[in-house]
Every structure is written in structure tokens, then in C-alpha cells.
Amino acid sequence: MIDPTVKELAQGKNFAALTTLFADGQPQTQIMWVDADDEHVLINTEVHRQKFANVEQDPRVTVAIFDADNPYHYAEVRGRVAEVVRGDEARAHIDALSAKYTGGPYAGPIQSERVILKITPDRQRSQ
């Protein structure tokens, strides 16, 4: 289950830093749009991206979500990508995220296939 503070931050108009691991163990971090349901932190990406290749090889990730109004208020989730959602649901999700962050449907070109990374927390904390 997602901690209520994690869920509140993830469902708000706040950005997240997603850290994945390369094959050699080096970390890679990107600033991402973020979402959550009752059990998972949700990240939407495309299958041709390095972050997707990383989680396909090693599902361990860390997501840090920062409150846009107060960067000292944040949440960190360490966990694993437990499920990858593809197809129409992933496409609709990127439009919903875009509406949250930009006020309209996703306008970027889709170069491959949209996917939702459903991250199950192993550890959660908030400040």
C-alpha cells in the first residue's frame, strides 16, 4: 500500500526523480512526471528509452517526489517495477499526466510504445 503522503505528492502537480540501474550497476536519474494508485507509484515512459531497458534488466528503482510549493517536503520510494502496462491504458495515462502538468493532451511525438511502470514500494519515507 502507498503511504498517504507519497500518494498525495505523486497525484499532485509535482515532479519526481526516477533512478534506475544500468547493467554495470551505475545509477541513471531523470526528472519525470509521476502518478500513483493505491498500491503503486506510476511512471509513464516509452519502450525505446534507456530507463525502460534498465528496469527490464533490473527492476529495482528509487523515486523521489518533490513538493512543487515546498522542496523540503518530499517523499522517497525504493521498490521494484512489479508490472508494465502497455497499449491503450498507457496511452490514455500519458494524456492524463499531460493534462495534469500542462493542461492539455500529450503533444510530444511517440517514438515507440508508451508503457506504465507500476512500482511496488519496499521502503517509503517522507519529510
Describe the structure.
The protein is of the alpha+beta class. It has a single domain (4-126), classed as Pnp Oxidase, Chain A, CATH 2.30.110. It has helices at 4-11, 50-57, 88-102, and strands spanning 15-21, 27-32, 35-36, 41-46, 60-67, 70-85, 114-126. Strands 2-1-5-6-7-4-3 form a 7-stranded antiparallel beta sheet. A hairpin with a 4-residue loop joins strand 3 and strand 4. The longest helix has 15 residues, at 88-102. It is globular, with a radius of gyration of 14 Å. It starts with a helix and ends with a strand. The mean pLDDT is 97.
Give me a quick take on this structure:
This protein is 24% helix and 46% strand. The chain has one domain: Electron Transport, Fmn-binding Protein, Chain A (Pnp Oxidase, Chain A, Roll), CATH 2.30.110. It is an alpha+beta fold.
